[in-house]
Design brief:
- By secondary structure, this protein is of the alpha+beta class.
- The chain is about 35% helix and about 30% strand.
- The strands form six sheets. Strands 4, 5, 6, 7, 8 and 9 form a six-stranded mixed sheet that branches. The chain has a five-stranded antiparallel sheet with strand order 12-11-10-13-14. Strands 15-16-17-19-18 form a five-stranded mixed β-barrel.
- It is elongated.
Length: about 700
C-alpha cells in the first residue's frame, strides 16, 4: 500500500515538473508538439494502409473464386486506394489491374459495397461495354455485383437492393433475365466468356446499333432458346450465328446415342460447327451419367489437338424441383487449321481402305450439294448423288442430312477430292427400292401439309414411316367427300393408313392413296320422292350442289328453285348462301352412278294448278307480257301468268298476232284449262268476249 502511494506521488511530481518546464520554455513545448504530430501521422497512415490492404485482399479473394469457373484472368487483380486530389477515378492500369479509389466511411457494409461496385464497373467486360446498350451493361454489373456480395458480405445486399430498386424498368427487366442465366449456371460459364471474346474481336470497330443489337440478341437467345431441361433433343440445333458472334451448343441428352454410336455423332457435329467458323461451342449435360459422357467427349476432342478447353470448372449443382441436380458445361474452341489437316488424313485413310463413311449436307442447290466431311467442305454434283438422274437435288436432300459416301478420287497435291453416294445405303435409288417393296402393304403416314390453291384443298402431303421420302395423296384418293374441305377430315399430325401407287422422280415423292375410305353412297337413307333437308355446298349460275348426307351430293337445277319464271329463278339462286339449309324433294336418285336431282319448288304444289282448280271458267283482267308465234302470255296477278293460244285470241283469222294485240295491252280473259306439259294456266280472250 505504501509502495503504490509512493508511485502515485512520483507520477504526479513528474507530470507537474513537465508542465512547469513546458510553460517556462516555449521552444521545448514546440519540439514536443512536433514529435507528437509525427507519431499521429504515422498512426493514421498505418490505419489507412491496413484498410486498403484489407479491402484489396477481400476483392482479390472474390475475383479468384469468380475466375475459377471461367479463366484465370477474367476478373483482374485489384488495388484499393483512398480518394485524394490526385486520384479520384477508377481505372485499369497498363498491366490490366484494377485501381479502385473510394472514400472510406465508418459503415463497413457501405465500404464493401462501394469497393465492389467500382471494381465491377471497370473490370467486367471492359472491352465489350462500349459496344453494348447502357441498360444491358448495368444489368450485367448488377448480376456480377450481387454474386460477389453473396460470397463476401450479405449485409451489403440491403444497400444493393436500394440501388437496384431505383433503376429504370429496362435495367430491372434485363437484370431479371440475366440473373435467371446466373441461377442455371450460364452467366459465368457461357455469357461472360463469349461477350468478353466478342468484345476483343469488335474492339477495332466503331460502336454501332448493329453491334448493340448483336450482343442483346445473344443474351435473349441464351435466355429463351437453350432451356435444355424441357427440350432434351440431341437433334435440335442450339445455334446463335451472327456476323461477329457464332456460338453452338451440343446437348448430351440421350445415353443411348453414346451407347449405340459412341463419340462419332458428337465429333461430327463439332467438326461441322468448326467448319462454319463458329467461335466456340459448349457441351451441356444434366445428370451424373450424361455429365461423364460430356467430360469423356471433351477429353477426346482435346486429344485430337483440334479443340482447346475454353472454360475451367465444368460441373456444378443447381436446385430444381427441390432436388440437387448436377449440370455439366464445357466450353471448347476449335483449331480450324488442325481440323482441316486431320480431315485430309481421315479421308485419305477411307480412300486407301475403300471404305464408306458419313458426311453431313451443309447446303443444297438445284444441281449439287455442299457436304461437310470431318470439317472439310466438299461439293458433290447431282450425278454423284444417285443412281438415276436427279432433276433437282433440293427434292432429295436437305440441310443437316447425313449421307454415306465413298471416295472416288483423292489427290492431295491438287487439293482434289471426289465423293460418291451411288450404290450406298443412302443412294435415293436404294431408298426408293426399299420402300417400293412395301407397295402391297398398308403403311402408316403422318399428315405434314394440306395443299390448297385459292382456298381449294386438293391434296395431302404425308411423311412415310421408315422413309425420308414424302407421300402425295390427291384429293380423290384422300376423301370421298367431294365438296367438303380435306381439313374437315384430316389435321396436320394425324396418322393415316396409306398404300403406295408409284414413285415420281421429278417431285421425289410417292403417289399414294388412303385405304379403307368410307363410301358414303353405300347406305343412303332416303329414296326418290322423299322430301329432305340439304345443305348448300356450291353455287353456280345454272345449278346448286347440295349435300344430303355426309359425302352424298345432288344437283338442284335453277329451273327447280321455284314455280316462278326462269328470270326470277336466276335472281333467287344469287340469294342462296354456302352452308344454308333448304328443304327439297328428291326427283331422281341414281346412287350407283352417284347422281341425284333435287327440286325445291316441288316441295309445294304448283300455284298454277291451285289457281286453275279454284278459278276454272272465271273471268280476270290482265295485261299482255309476251307475244309468241303460237300465242300470248297474260299476267293476271303477281304470281299467275296465263297462256292464250292464237286460236283463242280473236274470232277472226289472225295472220300476225301483233296486228291484234300489243305488249302491255289490257285484256279480259276466261280461265279455260291447264297445260301439264308446260305447267301453265290456259285462258281465252275469245270466250271472254262471248
Amino acid at each position: 500500500m505504501i509502495v503504490k502511494l509512493v508511485y502515485f506521488l512520483f507520477g504526479v511530481g513528474v507530470f507537474f515538473s513537465i508542465s512547469v518546464l513546458l510553460d517556462c520554455y516555449p521552444k521545448i513545448r514546440l519540439i514536443c508538439s512536433d514529435i507528437f504530430r509525427v507519431f499521429c501521422f504515422f498512426a493514421k497512415w498505418i490505419k489507412k494502409a491496413n484498410i486498403e490492404s484489407e479491402f484489396t485482399g477481400i476483392i482479390e479473394i472474390l475475383s479468384k473464386d469468380f475466375n475459377k469457373e471461367i479463366r484465370e484472368n477474367f476478373l483482374p487483380k485489384c488495388k484499393v486506394k483512398w480518394v485524394n486530389k490526385k486520384n479520384v477515378d477508377n481505372y485499369l492500369n497498363n498491366k490490366g489491374d484494377a485501381i479502385i479509389c473510394i472514400n472510406f466511411t465508418k459503415n463497413r457494409d457501405m465500404n464493401i459495397f462501394n469497393a465492389l461496385n467500382n471494381y465491377v464497373k471497370i473490370s467486367v467486360l471492359s472491352t465489350a461495354k462500349p459496344f453494348m446498350e447502357p441498360y444491358v451493361n448495368k444489368a450485367i454489373n448488377y448480376v456480377t455485383l450481387r454474386a460477389l456480395l453473396l460470397k463476401s458480405n450479405r449485409k451489403s445486399l440491403s444497400i444493393f437492393n436500394k440501388y437496384y430498386t431505383d433503376e429504370i424498368d429496362e435495367v430491372q427487366d434485363e437484370f431479371q433475365k440475366i440473373n435467371s442465366l446466373y441461377e442455371i449456371g450460364y452467366f459465368k460459364r457461357i455469357l461472360l466468356p463469349e461477350l468478353s471474346d466478342w468484345g476483343e474481336r469488335v474492339s477495332i470497330e466503331i460502336p454501332s446499333d448493329e453491334l448493340k443489337k448483336e450482343s442483346e440478341e445473344f443474351i435473349n437467345w441464351l435466355y429463351e432458346d437453350t432451356k435444355i431441361d424441357t427440350r432434351e433433343d440431341e437433334q435440335f440445333n442450339f445455334i446463335y450465328e451472327r456476323k461477329n458472334l457464332k456460338i453452338a451448343i451440343i446437348l448430351v441428352a440421350k445415353e443411348e446415342t453414346y451407347n449405340n454410336y459412341g463419340m462419332e455423332p458428337y465429333f461430327k457435329r463439332a467438326n461441322q460447327y468448326a467448319s462454319r467458323d463458329f467461335n466456340s461451342f459448349y457441351l451441356l449435360a444434366i445428370g451424373e451419367t450424361k455429365g461423364e459422357i460430356a467430360k469423356n467427349l471433351a477429353r477426346e476432342l482435346q486429344e485430337t489437338e483440334c479443340y482447346h478447353k475454353k472454360t475451367r470448372e465444368i460441373s456444378y449443382y443447381i436446385i430444381q424441383d427441390q432436388k440437387r441436380i448436377k449440370h455439366t458445361c464445357i466450353g471448347l474452341t476449335p483449331d480450324v487449321t488442325t481440323i482441316i489437316q486431320k480431315a485430309w488424313e481421315r479421308i485419305e485413310s477411307h480412300f486407301t481402305k475403300s471404305e464408306a463413311f458419313y458426311v453431313t449436307i451443309e447446303e443444297v442447290v438445284e444441281k449439287n450439294v455442299l457436304v461437310d466431311a470431318y470439317g472439310l467442305k466438299i461439293t458433290m454434283n447431282s450425278d454423284e448423288l444417285a443412281s438415276f438422274e436427279i432433276p433437282d437435288c433440293r427434292r432429295y436432300f436437305h440441310f443437316d442430312q447425313d449421307i454415306k459416301v465413298f471416295v472416288k478420287l483423292f489427290n492431295r497435291d491438287d487439293n482434289n477430292i471426289e465423293l460418291s453416294n451411288i450404290n450406298t445405303e443412302t443412294d435415293p435409288q436404294k431408298l426408293v427400292d426399299k420402300i417400293s417393296k412395301k407397295s402391297s402393304e398398308v403403311i402408316i403416314g403422318k399428315v405434314g401439309k394440306i395443299l390448297k390453291t385459292n382456298d381449294y384443298e386438293h391434296a395431302l402431303i404425308v411423311s412415310i414411316q421408315g422413309s425420308s421420302f414424302k407421300g402425295f395423296i390427291p384429293r380423290y384418293f384422300a376423301s370421298n367427300y367431294e365438296y367438303r374441305k380435306i381439313s374437315d377430315q384430316y389435321e396436320v399430325g394425324d396418322e393415316v393408313e396409306i398404300s403406295l401407287i408409284e414413285f415420281n422422280e421429278e417431285h421425289a415423292s410417292f403417289r399414294c392413296k388412303c385405304v379403307n375410305l368410307i363410301n358414303p353412297w353405300e347406305n343412303v337413307a332416303f329414296t326418290e320422292n322423299d322430301i329432305i333437308e340439304v345443305t348448300v355446298c356450291l353455287i353456280r349460275e345454272q345449278y346448286v350442289i347440295c349435300e344430303a348426307e355426309c359425302g352424298v351430293y345432288g344437283k338442284l337445277p335453277v329451273s327447280q328453285l321455284s314455280w316462278s319464271s326462269r328470270e326470277d329463278n336466276l335472281n333467287l339462286i344469287n340469294e342462296l348462301n354456302i352452308g344454308q339449309q333448304i328443304e327439297v324433294k328428291v326427283l331422281n336418285a341414281d346412287f350407283l352412278n352417284k347422281k341425284i336431282i333435287f327440286s325445291k319448288k316441288q316441295v309445294e304444289e304448283n300455284p298454277n294448278i291451285t289457281f286453275h282448280r279454284s278459278n276454272l271458267g272465271k273471268f280476270f283482267d290482265g295485261s299482255v307480257t309476251k307475244i309468241h308465234f303460237s300465242g300470248i302470255n297474260v299476267k293476271i296477278d303477281e304470281f299467275i301468268k296465263a297462256f292464250i293460244p292464237i286460236s283463242e285470241i280473236s274470232k277472226e283469222y289472225i295472220n300476225d298476232i301483233e296486228d291484234v294485240v300489243q305488249i302491255g295491252e289490257k285484256v279480259t280473259v276466261k280461265i279455260t284449262g291447264y297445260d301439264d306439259l308446260y305447267e301453265n294456266v290456259v285462258a281465252s280472250i275469245k270466250q271472254a268476249i262471248e
